[in-house]
## 1
Amino acid sequence: MPAQSVRSLPSESSSVPASVERVAETVLPTRHGTFRLVGYRDGGGTEHVVLAQGIDDDAPDTTGPPPLVRVHSECLTGDALGSWRCDCGEQLDAALAEIAREGRGAVVYVRGHEGRGIGLLAKLKAYALQDQGIDTVDANTALGLPVDARRYDQAAEILQDLGIGAVRLLSGNPAKEEALEDLGIRVVERRGLVVSERSENARYLATKRARMRHDAAPVADAWDLLLDGVVPAAPAPGEAEELAHRYGYVAAATGQLVIGQLRQSLDGFIASRTGDAGLHEDRGDQGHLQRLRALVDAVVVGASTVLTEDCSLAVEEVPGSSPVRVVLDAGAKVGVQARVLADDGVPTLWITGLGAVVPTGLPASVEVVRLAEGDFAPRRVLDILQARGLWKVLIEGGGKTVSRFLDAGVLDRLYLTTAPVLVGDGVPGIRFSGSDALDEARSAPVRRFVFGQDICTEFNFAAVR
Ligand SMILES: Nc1nc2c(ncn2[C@@H]2O[C@H](COP(=O)(O)OP(=O)(O)OP(=O)(O)O)[C@@H](O)[C@H]2O)c(=O)[nH]1
Ligand SMILES: [Zn+2]
């Protein structure tokens, strides 16, 4: 027999009137910023809280769109204990993050909603039944309890008390929208929050969709979140977790971030003495360089690298857009045929010397920046990029360029990958002025990644600055 779809009980079915009373007001600093915390008690004695930002009850802002609002049902196991059986904790976290990002909105944290209104211990009994194979809907019914006993009149009254008559609702549950509308709150938009689908919650999420009319929750793709500058709160084990672990710091960075990367032979060369740079062909780096490019605003290379490798510096193998290309080329030696100067929709900053002769007829996407000879110092280059809004920068090569940025002390991180070959003599990789005493040698906390036969060492210089 096909599973029956269930509607929640209408809010009128409950006997106790809400009639909320505002009891306390303070502030709550959280990892998403500081929220106004307002405490209410309803007519049945249940206590509720609201976390709000940018909401002025006395002078509601009627100019812009209505605020983001989440009416969040209490869930001790999900919200406080980090349970993966449901998506509550992740939704609460995502709602606070979105509200903080907009600087305006409210989470109404509704107590008494535990277990869709049946209470904590009844929910645990329902979990025990689910452990034996029945779904979340039938488990409540088997206990002789309603599938969904939640009422929303207290939430509606709280919103009205805060001067919020219309909302953009953060919820995947159409019943919440209908209940609020019935109670006089205008829902101009409703959308679910991004959550991770895991083996532990997959059945629960599927049942919510199939039997409780929930929308399909937008499932977080960890890489998409990182590209959007968001660190996934609870990435699924496996690739998502690895990506969040490796690159979360790039997504989270708010100010300037300068990352160097270089792949060299074990004895420290990037090419043979004739300039054969075949070392770069098989990177075996699981898309590491592509991912770094996709996460930064600009990628910087020296002219020699462009001349020997004719790289496009584009993001091609992973989802994401190509960063602005920055070519350091005092003598304007890079020819117009070079791929970095191609008219391929990716902007290029061609930084050349004052007297260098630059060909005419360059594509509009190429901006030529002129610098005096002594002005190619790494900090000066970074200032030029920053002035153009390019805050996250990857110094991609070659050996001289990365070494100059390292020597200038401007690298926050350096990925130095060593390939298991010995070149003996050739184009040097990392070389810098160094120091007489070994205890002054550059060091920093490191992480190591194995890329095929290569070892990549990530120096976190920012941690010791
Ligand atoms: N009875 C019961 N309650 C559950 C179960 N899993 C989560 N809950 C409760 O369900 C409530 C959340 O309801 P959901 O249906 O997950 O989501 P929603 O609040 O209706 O919709 P969203 O706004 O999209 O989160 C919380 O109070 C949880 O404690 C379960 O298996 N059985
Ligand atoms: Zn939950």
## 2
Amino acid sequence: MDKDTVLTHILKPKGMSTLLGGELPLNVINNNGYIPLLTSEAQTAERNVEGNLPSLSNAILTALSGKVKTVSLVGPEGSGKTTALQKLVLDWAQGQHLQNFTAVFHFQFRELNNMNWPLSLETVLLHHHGLIEHDSLPLVLQNPQDVLFVFDDLDDFKQSLDPTTQTLCSDPSQAASLSCLVASLLHGSLLKGAAFVVATRTTGFLRFLDGTQVEVLGFLKPQREAYFQGFFTDPGVANKALQHMERTLGFYDVSATPRFCWTVCSTYKSLMDAAAKLPETISQLYVDILVNLIQMLSLSQNYNKELVLALGRMASHCSVDQHSSCNKEEMDAFGFQQLLNSVGVFLQVDGERSSRPVFTFRSQMMQEFLLALSFFFDKSMPKSAESVLEKHKGANFLDMFLSALSEPTQCRPLETLIGRFDPDQIMDFKSWFKSSSAMTLKGCYRDKHQRCFHLLHQAQSDSLVKEIVTDSAHLGISYRDLSLQDCVALNYVITCLGEMKQLNLYLTRNLTEEKAERLAPAMSLSHNINLSDCSLSTGAVLHLASALSRGLTTDLNLSNSHLGDEKLKVLSAGLRDSKLHNLNIQVCSLTEASCEDLVSVLTSGTSQLCVLNLRWNAIGDQGLMKLCKALQSPHCKLQQLVLQANELTVTSMEALSAALCSGQSEMRKVDLTNNTIGDAGVEALCKSLQHPLCKLQSLNFFDSQLTGACCSHLMEALMSENCSLTELELTVNDLGQEGALLLCKALSKPGCPIETLGLKRCELTELVFKDLGSVLTSGTSKLKSLVVGINKVGDRGVKHLLDAVAHPNCLLEELDVEMTDLTDACVEDVCAAIRASKTLKSLELRNNSLTDASVPALVQVMQDSPNMLEMCLKYNDFSEDVFDMLEECNRIRY
Ligand SMILES: Nc1ncnc2c1ncn2[C@@H]1O[C@H](COP(=O)(O)OP(=O)(O)OP(=O)(O)O)[C@@H](O)[C@H]1O
């Protein structure tokens, strides 16, 4: 039809606006309420200069100028497809775009469905569409490239579009089935060259359409903002309403649909006008909507109930059979006979004046809500909640609505209109919910935990949360990759509980600002927060920081989260006033710059930080030297510092040593693993060990590029009266025989405090093992744990230690002789040592050359020695023949 016809005929609004159906598209457009929509990037080239998503109308216009002039607008229920089509046609008629088309034909499949007899395209255009002059038709048909067809609601099309199952037609005057006409048009056999814009929800028909698909994104946040401002005349009220919607509903996909926004705005407006409370959950919103709709109908309580029951039956039918619409016979079977005049607010009625009207729910969400409601009323519904849910598996919100409606405070407003809910049904739902939640929460499936939290959130009952989430709930599992609505539900549950042992978000790939904001109250109520291997936006870190600063959290694990210096700065602001004791920021891509922020935290006077793990951050000597300033502050409470692989050298060891003996440092444990501090670094630290004010108890020099030269300094330090070191780790350093013998000298001095010694892979010899044996039997040694694996001393070397273990003076509890070239020849000594020792609990024998022959004796001695907690025999030369025997003792690992 031409532009004038469009302007005079088509653009007269048909029908009326309804709360669930939306404001009529033409009213929206005519009243300047149209908010331009966006599409996703995939279909169009790129974002525009401001980095925003492309506009929907541009995407359509661009696609129509392409080679295949078919554009499919795809979007969910109420996302604005019809409105966008009407705007497109109106703008064309007003000369704003698409002026290359001389005629535009606009069809709705819902209406076409009624044509059940063969028709030619000419007849459809002339008589059915009825708005084209007979004379102009040939012109149109001769120039198909000047014609645009606009088809709406393709998903409602009840016939086939498959070109392979029907013979397509090409003659506009030939009568054919509707299915053939539409398929022939879209496949180009009829009116070849014409252009098409087709709007649809996601449907299987899309596979028959060539051309461009354009996603209709509906209202994202900025469009919602514009819409609310347009809806409410007072900007303050608009803002209040929007904030409320964003906080309570903004995380549901449905809130991106313009139709839902209309429903929400209209409902909020009437509640605000009545000075009533706005709904806190989606269930409460639907209670309010239903109350509003029922009140509008002004029926008696009996009629209200009948209507709700009939709607519930229809909802169940549509949900089970995946029907979107029902005919008159079906409606009668649901019990609508007397009530059909009242269904308009709930149902869209097509072909009202024809003999075959079709009824469709205006809102899928309301369909599910009515289904849930009927569970508490309809005697014909399955009796148990479990079977209702089983029967309507495809319903997304059913369990959430059931949960909300089973709470007295939430169902009360409806009870006054439709009568009392069946108490047996309420009880049934409650007992199903409690027992299934108890099972779910004992298990480890995070999705199921989340669902349970959603149901609790909908129920809005503190006491129910406390009843369901008990100590037996397994809440320590990782709730990674939460959606925004998961965050809201989890936060609700933790807030009701009042505190949480551990909030585990391990492996969350995208903790956005919005999600962290929703979780912030839960974070402050959690004693331990695990955010290891997560990626957090700066905004998220900001919320974490503020949650920590007012919260209960004592342990925070951010390891492997690659925070970087900037985000650490943001975090530091919250650390000062937090209760944090233990901060793990290993592998966080930090540099020297972060140390300044950490210093300001540690010296703040309010920080409680005792343990700081900085493993694998390139802070370097300059960074550690800054931290050392903090260690000398009377405010710093740090006791343990993990400095593994921090690119440290001897340069920073002097400063560390000075800090340790400053008299202010509380430091008990320093781990310097994997740094190149070398012998000179050890020498510097040994000075502090001899200082009376140094409180250090544990030093770890694992793989620190040391040689025997450092041992004289260690010996001196260990022999000093002031030394309080109980743990010394020197594993993976080339100390050699000479160096190790010096250490043994120190260890044999009465009073030497060392209890745990690590000398794995230190190039030790049999002579060293002999001296270590003497240390152990000396009667003065406090050694409880000795790790001397990966030194090739063989059976003879290890025998010195085994004999020592058998000696009554030896206090050893743990001996590690991994990969020391042991053979079956040592087994007798092993068994003798175990039998004689009163203290030994663990023996590490992995990576040796023991064979099957040793197994019976080793199993026997383990069975006879209940003191022994573990013997590890992994990676020896056993055959499968002995596995059964080894299996007999569960304290043997093999
Ligand atoms: N761009 C818009 N600006 C303002 N309001 C809009 C816009 N788009 C849609 N609406 C409102 O949302 C309602 C629903 O939109 P519309 O009917 O266009 O959705 P739809 O995607 O065609 O839905 P369905 O899949 O159910 O056919 C409209 O009646 C109108 O009130």
